[in-house]
Amino acid sequence: MTTGARRRMGVEERRDQLIAVALDLFSHRSPEDVSIDEIAEAAGISRPLVYHYFPGKQQLYEAALRRAAEELTARFVEPHEGPLGARLLRVMERFFDFVEVHGPGFSALMRGGPAVGSTRASAMIDGVRQAAYEQIVAHLGVPDPTPRLELVVRSWVSLAETTALLWLDRRSIPRTELERQLVHDFAALAAVSAAYDERMAQVVRHMLADEPADGMFADLVGRLMSLPAPVRCA
Amino acid sequence: MTTGARRRMGVEERRDQLIAVALDLFSHRSPEDVSIDEIAEAAGISRPLVYHYFPGKQQLYEAALRRAAEELTARFVEPHEGPLGARLLRVMERFFDFVEVHGPGFSALMRGGPAVGSTRASAMIDGVRQAAYEQIVAHLGVPDPTPRLELVVRSWVSLAETTALLWLDRRSIPRTELERQLVHDFAALAAVSAAYDERMAQVVRHMLADEPADGMFADLVGRLMSLPAPVRCA
User: Keywords, A to Z (chains A, B) (predicted)?
Assistant: First the structure.
């Protein structure tokens, strides 16, 4: 390991540094408002040298987005142990950690716009959504998700995104409450869906099977599942 | 009123026609895949004449988007009469009518992309979301929405968007079921939120006050609201 602070960096190392510097700047201001000059200055190199490592602003932004997407995706990984509600709550805590650290960058990215609204950026965001979807389906223990299950999970992912964006804008509700509320939202949406679809009801029963009496899901979903026929409208 | 079919159109009339032609083409294929040549041909005029009315493709697309946004916003308007659940269901039916008619155009727009992902397009989409939000808040009879209410309504709007996009992609669940499910989703999310916030609970009670015993909300929300203290985690 080299320890000299001023040594010459290799190409990959320099690219990594520029990405890290860009992400740090994007965590305080929207990518649209951050120039290559600022990134160069914060990295302690010249503007032309930045263009040596990245052909343009868009490429550096996309590399930063790819790094952030990988980091967020890694946060979705949760051991398949213990009650499902507690697992989902831990993932929500890590998701909000990410959202809090990346603030303006996350917000600009999810809302699109000139600096961040490219087709490749959209594809990377969809990749993160897909990873979230697959993680949840795996935790639910469903090898072949039904259309109804897919709908519940994917629409809940968008609900979590919107909740996080509103939290960044307003900060009017503590994030710890929103993390818990999102877990309960998932349970409520799954239970509503179960009223329409017997296979979805099986999934909800499986979700509940491992829940302790004081778990995140148990009481809420249990009561919803005991709703009588009239609410289970076809 | 002029009735001649081949008469010369005025500027506004021609612009209206081009917008209508573009929206019709976008209802079958993504805007990215529709050229100005095709729009000119479908309108029965030359390509240069299209550019006489719209300086570029982007301007015509944005004019078409503005028209579609106005049309969708108009569909949110619902008389303040009768049970809230039934009102919301009628709005959902009109929303899915719109989504079904505009199919690929709606899908491309909501997912962003080079042809439709401009800042102005994003602002128009946000305008439609804001109109949906304001309509719902007005129906709930809340003059000063709390942060929690704002969160529930805005995140439910994103849930409805995601549900509609998945329906367009898959068509695996009948839209009539999804329209009803979305109304129940709203009730479930409001009820979950009420467990965290006494003012939100008041809103839910108001929602329920006008509901008939067999209404969309009554049973589902009523049972959720009767959940005992342990679920109402702070």
Answer: DNA-binding, Transcription, Transcription regulation
For residue A170, the one-letter residue type is R
Inform me whether the C-beta atom of residue B191 falls under 8 Å from chain A C-beta atoms: yes
* Residues across chain A: 234
| Closest alpha carbon to A63 in A116, A111, A126, A102 | A116
Q: What is the pLDDT of residues B1-11, one digit of tens each?
A: 444 455 678 89
ipTM attached to this prediction: 0.85
Give residue A27's Cα distance to chain centre.
16
* Contact check, Cβ <8 Å, A195/B189: no
Q: Which residues in chain A are closer than 8 Å to B195, comparing Cβ atoms?
A: 184
Q: How confident is the model at residue B204 (pLDDT cuts 50, 70, 90)?
A: confident
Which of A229 and B103 is assigned the larger pLDDT?
B103
- Closest residue in chain A to residue B119, using alpha carbons only: A113
Is the CB of B44 inside 8 Å of chain A's CB atoms? Answer: no
Any chain B CB within 8 A of the CB of A15?
A: no
Listed in sequence order, the DSSP H helices in chain A are: 11-26, 36-43, 47-53, 57-75, 84-111, 119-140, 147-170, 175-194, 198-209, 218-225
- What span, in angstroms and rounded, lies between the C-alpha atoms of B114 and B118? 8
Q: Is A140 on the interface with B (CB under 8 A)?
A: no
Structural domains for chain A: 64-231 (1.10.357.10)
Cβ contact, residue pair B147, A184, below 8 Å:
no
Rounded Cα distance, B88 and B140, in Å: 11
Q: What residue of A is the nearest CA neighbor of B214? A: A230
pLDDT (tens digit, 9 = 90+) per residue, A122-177?
888 999 999 999 999 999 988 889 999 999 999 999 999 999 999 999 899 999 99
Alpha-carbon span B36 to B40, nearest angstrom: 6
CB atoms within 10 A of CB A168: 18
CB of B64 closer than 8 Å to CB of B141: no
Locus of tokens 């899915």: B96
- Residue A229 carries which DSSP code? G
Higher pLDDT, residue A224 or B27: B27
From the list B112, B224, B216, B217, the residue with the least C-alpha distance to B161 is B112
CA B64 to the chain's CA centroid:
16
